[in-house]
Amino acid sequence: MDPSFVLGEPKTTFPNVIIDPEVVIIADSFQNLDVYKLSMQFAYDVYQIVSSFPDFEKFGLSSQLRRASVSVPSNIAEGSGRQHQKEFVQFLFLSKGSLREVMTQLELSKMLGYISEETFIQMQGQADRLHKMLNRLIARLKNPGG
């Protein structure tokens, strides 16, 4: 367990993920959405973080964090494949819920001494950006002409 864990570079390349929460472009594929790319990076970072948790958390907090973090990009992907935009929006709301779940569990991890304040703040920053981007995408889908 290393509370001073610093997030590393992803093993999978996310080509220069440039994130601007003020600009949301509906892409031809969910994989081209900046919010999807950032959510994949977020899930990757959670996996890196929990790898340093105590062994006895393997089927507890570690497992729950992994599942919740994977739900964020998974719901974006699943929603984008639905027939109606209303369904996509519903899945984006599920992503937002999973994001909040991860942050609650990371806060508990910080309280338990599994992660440092610095790591928590880094993840909170990513979560805040993701939340803004999800909100912008939801607004764009609800009001395509606006």
How would you portray this structure in words?
The chain is mainly alpha-helical and 146 residues long. It has one domain: de novo design (two linked rop proteins), CATH 1.20.1440. The chain is built from 4 helices and no strands. It has helices spanning 34-50, 61-80, 85-111, 117-142. The model is unreliable at 1-6 and 9-26 (pLDDT under 50).
Task: Kindly summarize this structure in a few lines.
This protein is mainly alpha-helical and 146 residues long. It has helices spanning 34-50, 61-80, 85-111, 117-142.
Report the end-to-end length measured between terminal Cα atoms.
48 Å
Q: How many domain regions?
A: 1
Computed Rg: 16 Å
SSE run: HHHH
Can you tell me the CATH architecture? Answer: Up-down Bundle
The outline comes out as elongated
Unreliably modeled segments:
1-6, 9-26
* CATH class division: Mainly Alpha
**Which structural class best describes the helix and strand composition?**
mainly alpha
> Could you estimate the helical fraction of the residues in percent?
55-70%
Number of strands: 0
CATH superfamily: 23S rRNA-intervening sequence
Number of helix segments?
4
Q: What profile does the largest beta sheet have? A: none
Which fold name is given in CATH as the topology?
Answer: de novo design (two linked rop proteins)
Share of residues in strands: under 5%
Q: If you average the pLDDT, what whole number results?
A: 85
